Amino acid sequence: MPYPGVFKPIKKGNFRVSPFQVNKQWSIDNASYSSSGYTLQQAVFRKGITPIGTTTLSTYGQNFGTAGTVQHISNFHGADNDPINTYDQSFQHVIWHSVNHKYYKFPYDPANNLGASNRNTIEKRLFLSASNFTIPYFKVGESIKPGSLKVTDTSNDFILNDDRKGNLRDSLITSQSFATASNLVGYWGFNDEFKKFKYASGYHSKDIVFESNAYEVDVKSQVVNTNFQPGIMTTGLDDIGIRGYTGSELLTNGDFSNGFDSNWTTGSSAAFTASYAAFSINASNQLVISSSAIITGSSGGTVYATFAPDGTVMEAGKTYRLELKNFNYASGTHDIEIKFGRSFNVNGGFERPLINADDNGDYVHYFEAVMPSADSITIHSSGSVRATIDEISLKEVEIPRSGMKAIFDGTGYIKTDAYKALNFDREDDFAISFWYGGGASQSIYTTDANSLITKRGVNDKLILNKKTRKREIVEEDRTLTRYPFDLEVLNNDAGIENTGKIRFRRSDGVITYSSASATRCTGSFLVGQAPEYHIVAQKSGSYLELWIDGTREIQSLDPVPGEVLNYSKLMFGAMNRNLHNALSGSVDEVRIYNYGLNETAIKSLANNHFLSGSAYQTSVAGNVFYKSGQTVISSAMPKYHKALGEGGNDTDAKWRIDYKGTHTIYENEVLVEVPAGHSNVSMNPTALQRANTDRLKKEFTGSLTPYITTIGLYNNDAQLLAIGKLAQPIAKRSDVDMNFIVRWDY
């Protein structure tokens, strides 16, 4: 019997390859990432190049700012040395520039970045600091599955979810309350200005790019001598220390269990003792305040006790946290005052908050030092007052500021051309939203007010150039009497009682509307409140309105009957280029809309809460780049400045990242046709008479029925590519054709 052929060619239509995607779930946390191939790097902006061989390295978190205006915020870098990531000893500023070059330098140019670039779907902003998390290739595959990544940072109280478009969104920020973005005709956030400085802040006179949804992108404003510093202060920090912003303890022996030390005095010199009538220690080791016993004398009916912390001073520009533990205002006819510094008058020294019966409990007060230095706090009481305090605590703190703001000192301004979308006529609704911060007074008094945002002082003029005999357009400073809006802050010339009030004006050249807020926006550091104020001035329907910190203070029917349209340029910080009515103060997050805002949108714009702030009108805190397996967390909001820890430098960081990797699996399917009469004998060599013969042994002749156990797939060179093993042998029938389907994945 001849040895049969066993190779059968596969027909063209009998082979199919079907690709399909599979996703594997991965989870990684702060405890396991470094040993699993993941990379966590902190990125911090610094202009300049680190010399090769540099070995002197600073720690993360430096102070920044100019002399006399130093601000403290952990993510700003202000030393000549460079911080590193302990994970891989990489320079943090090199990582920042690398991330910027790959994804953010040209964020919406697909030819010049490696990530998504559709500005309608992805929001890409790289702030001063960022956290860069990289997933290794074999744990991401071809890409991160869109919509699968979740960042949970319990140390910084946020959860970020991937929105399938490359944005990491914070669920605590309610986007439903945002103002309508399509109606935004101008936005000046100043949050990219740090790139113009070596150490992220300072003065410059360069053009800046602002945003608009009403006309072309990347339009510019001219800047003249403007100081850019950390922006608006965040609120909602009941205990700043839990987020790493608490500084040194200045009053370390603030409980009264052991009485007072020699640093406590009464009046101007007398040593404080428990027997003193106005201040005493009771049986529960509480400080007892009772001034009713002293109604005459050199103190003028008041008594006070002063504490001077040993070897410490309170410094101007720094922020402090005063806490009265278990304050109990038992009774009294006059409020207790806490004074800071040596000055006892209202305008000197530091804040002097009043404490009364409404403040029972743990009373916390934040204040910013405004004098060069001081070395004391004073409890001041008059009238008939009785109260107890368990403990007094004084700390220097770093209250986080968000973004960047523009500070004017009377010598600069920001000017924007008169774009059509900014030229509102009498019938147009509009809203101007911004944050203002100013001191108790202005430095320039040419009139009773200083310009915040105005559109009445700088205009284009067509002239004939006598030399070239050609017509040219030149700027001129000319105060117009017709304007859609003019926002000012009243100064001392308007009276002490009006200093700091915001005035909203509008005029058709004949009739002028003018109204001022009830609130004095003097930058006071009140309990739980930032020193900046949120302002909205708008025309909504028939009404002119002025809102301060989310509360409407003015609503008036528009009394201006004539046209208010002009083509004057938009000015911040001064009325014109000659610095008429120049401002001493700051503006930030300036937004101009072409519609009137409702209360919900205004409150959203005024919300700069540490956890849920919507002042930036975005819930995006970073991006996920699916193909490269990189996650970048970066935002002007300070709660993200230490996201995932400080590049391996923070051993207390607690976070978790969940995601799905994407892999393409190829399913191969081959139809193996075995005709009747083919492959009907065994291929076992032991069944052959000899190795070089095609004859079977005699015992296999007759009614032999072979069983099929294995199917091999070969290429044209007879090289075995794949073997398919049957689950059980199948008898080869000679009376019918038999078909087998072989499948495998790779």
Give a description of the structure.
With 746 residues, the chain is mostly beta strands. It has four domains: 12-17 and 665-745, no CATH class; 31-173 and 618-653, no CATH class; 182-234 and 403-605, Sandwich (Jelly Rolls); 246-397, Jelly Rolls (Sandwich), CATH 2.60.120. The chain is 3% helix and 40% strand. It is elongated, with a radius of gyration of 37 Å. Residues 56-80, 240-244, 257-276, 293-302, 342-351 and 525-529 have low confidence and may be disordered.
The level-1 CATH class of the largest domain: Mainly Beta
Distance linking N and C termini? 41 Å
Regions with pLDDT < 50 over 5+ consecutive residues? 56-80, 240-244, 257-276, 293-302, 342-351, 525-529
Q: Number of domains in the coordinates?
A: 4
Mean pLDDT: 81
**Overall outline:** elongated
Short structural summary:
The protein is 3% helix and 40% strand. With 746 residues, it is mainly β.
Give a topology summary.
Layout: E1 15-29, E2 39-44, E3 84-85, E4 90-91, H1 92-104, E5 129-134, E6 143-144, E7 150-153, E8 158-162, E9 167-170, E10 184-188, E11 202-204, E12 208-210, E13 219-224, E14 226-230, E15 246-249, E16 264-266, E17 270-271, E18 279-281, E19 287-290, E20 302-307, E21 314-315, E22 319-332, E23 336-340, E24 354-355, E25 361-368, E26 373-374, E27 377-382, E28 385-389, E29 391-397, E30 404-409, E31 413-416, E32 430-437, E33 449-454, E34 458-464, E35 471-477, E36 482-490, E37 501-508, E38 512-520, E39 533-540, E40 543-548, E41 551-557, E42 570-572, E43 584-593, H2 599-605, E44 620-625, E45 630-633, E46 655-674, E47 707-714, E48 720-731, E49 738-745
